[in-house]
Specification:
The protein contains 19 helices and no strands. The protein is an all-alpha fold and about 400 residues long.
Length: about 400
Amino acid sequence: MPDYENRSTAAKTENISSVRHAYTLRDLIIYFLKLGTWGFGGPVALVGYMHRDLVEKKQWITDEEYKEGLALAQLAPGPLAAQLGIYIGFVHYGLLGATLCGLAFVIPSFIMVVALGMLYKAFSGMAWLQAVFYGIGASVIGIIAMSAYKLTIKSISKPELTLIKSKWMLWTLYLVGVIVTVAIEREEVLLFLAAGLLYMIIKAPPKWIKKPALLPVVFAGTGFWQFETGKLWEIALFFTKAGAFVFGSGLAIVPFLHGGVVKEFGWLTENQFLDAVAVAMVTPGPVVITVGFIGYLVAGFPGASVAALAVFIPCYLFTVLLAPSFKKIAKNTSIKAFVDGITASVIGALVGAVIVIALRTIIDIPTALIAIASVLALIYVKKLPEPAIIAIAAVIGAMIKLV
């Protein structure tokens, strides 16, 4: 914090205080409330909106500050867009700004997924809702598959022979992530850590490896208040790990969640999990807010609250703790290599999870066609948002099953 305060003092002497007084904390909170309410399109779109609105239009923060926040969000684990929002709140208003902006960004979509969770628990046995999710499930598979491809080319490289040769190690870690996830049908955190350490040691070994030394040591029928205390502790621990070990896009958390809530704990069925991912797709705000829906299905509103709080606490702590000294940390090549290795393995696990879920969701020709059509829509109909694709798939699913 002292370094940050010194920079703030220096900045004021350089006559850029007008930028710092261009808005109040209240203005920033209102902005993030609106973004959390109407910000569809996933993490890439959300961080784009922040640059367009806060840097280009309002000029509340500088382009340099935005880039620093984006770099930190990519370096640390947790949902990308939420971390950037927390950082922007921190830039001029410290811990209070980071906390309030993070809450303002997450709360609108949290309320929406809790409401959808209530409806889901109350009416999930009805034929029309099952028919709707028949189409939605297949569409979500197509959307996740497309997102996994975009993450692959963004974080590793395009699948071109020359690029694969130049980044063969990242591609190897990626493929190992795919194969292991498909084989064991869950995400293995230790694999990610091993991938990060291996890539760091080979590409940018830190000084303590070059010179060996000691390592640094309510509502009827909706289950609104139905929960078990022991289960809340399990939810808190699991979703804290999810928030602490998942890097990059909000969709990168999908395989980790699948391995835990479906395979390890058996909290949700395969179809319920896919419905939870669909809920995240059709609501604004960070995709990772699907944990609120999952928590609600497992342990009512307390479960939703604990899950959402647990998954966002790690990224909040990483952001506010690293932000003051980030310029120095960001230049550390060993840290960059560590994160690159983890990211390659995580994205591979995401692709593996898509395969595992698809094998259970694409059950007939109509679902296969819906999934393919969703991918083609994303490629060729640029202005068609993901929630619209899912809504169309829901109507098609209902027509197939009910007509």
